[in-house]
Amino acid sequence: MKFWDLNLRQRFKSAALVSLALLLIAIAPGASSVALAQDESPWKGGAPPPSQPRETAPVEEDNIVERAMGAVCLERSRDPLGSVPIDVMQARPSLPLAHPDAVAGLRRAERLLPQARDLVVASLRDLSSEYNIEEARIRAATARVLAVNKIEPDVELRDNASVILSTPRTIYFGTIFLAGLQSDEGMVSVLAHELTHIADGREDSLHPLFRLVGRRATTLTGMRIVGRRPEELTCDLLGAMVARAYIERTPGKEALARRLARAIEHNCVEEDGTDEAHLSPRNTMRALLALDPTFGSEVMGNPRGALNLAEPPSLPVKTRPRVRKTRLNSRQGSARPHHAGAN
Ligand SMILES: [Zn+2]
Questions:
Q1: Ligand 1 centroid to 78 CA: how many Å?
Q2: Which of 51, 115, 281, 312 lies 20 to 30 Å from 170, alpha-carbon distance?
């Protein structure tokens, strides 16, 4: 799912980051401002700079994943509660805290947070079982998720959501983003994404899971998914899983396809740019639909049947996760802005 985790205030608070910026300016005066801007908000307009090449995905006209993507975006365009694509959100002027749409979005987020917490815990357990992740990691992650109890609206965050490890009970939400997610399904999916970052915590509890999900998506799609992208993709996958579980828990008159599409349709962008941390929005959808073929099948109106993809690879064999002690300070600098804030 594509929305950008960052915290502008933290950027300005962090001496480490300022130092990094100065260093970059000293090293590469022509590229530094672009690099930093790209890290935080990759769609300031136009195509990504050459230093941020777009990942490529194999695209076939009759590819079933492509058709599922088309179905998602068609649903979005017909849905009165459809989410605003994030490139459209990004082009909008700032929205004051008191704007009725931002207030409504905040109320929606606050109302859905308890359910999102419970569903993230359940979906995380399912996914971790599928990938043979150690129980102790899931217990620690669960405790962190269940402790989240606050949504903080923030005008400066605009079309982004963010978490900070120094305030692990709060999800920060840009007001444009709060207003742009008009359905419960869209909101619960984004909440689940942020809760998954919090679940990972300072200890990187979920990194073995992130690596395995990223590796599987690479095998299925041929896309290069490295660096921070496996974590972001796994957060999006949990978002889609949680949205589906939420739909099952709250039956209604609306079509399943429409409700499901809301979980990922904010990725229906025209301007498909990205940064180093995320797959592009459309490639995020491709990866999610490849990882979760049932989702795509249901969006295309074929409930309970999986997409007829080529034989997916068998699940990864059980591995012993390696605990990495490296990446010191990475969360204090620009490397992981959504987790910045160790101070
Ligand atoms: Zn994220």
A1: 27
A2: 281
pLDDT at residue 34, rounded to an integer:
26
Cα-to-centroid distance, 5 and ligand 1 (Å): 5
Nearest to 84 by CA among 194, 198, 197, 174: 174
Enumerate the H helices of the chain as residue ranges: 8-13, 15-27, 32-40, 64-78, 86-90, 100-130, 135-146, 175-180, 184-200, 207-221, 229-249, 256-261, 281-291, 293-299
- State in Å: Cα 281 to ligand 1 middle: 12
Distance between CA atoms of residues 142 and 103, nearest Å: 29
Q: What distance in angstroms lies between residue 304's CA and the mean position of ligand 1's atoms? A: 29
Q: What's the confidence (pLDDT) of residue 274?
A: 86
Q: Quick check: 313 pLDDT over 90?
A: no
pLDDT tens sequence across 91-106: 999 999 999 999 999 9
Ligand 1 center–CA 79 separation, angstroms: 25
Closest CA to 289 of 278, 301, 298, 280: 298
| C-alpha of residue 73 to centroid of ligand 1, in Å | 21
- CA of 253 relative to ligand 1 center, distance in Å: 31
Distance 4 CA to ligand 1 centre (A): 6
Residue 31 corresponds to which tokens in the numbers above?
Answer: 């590229």
Take residue 218 and report the two structure tokens written for it: 């690479």
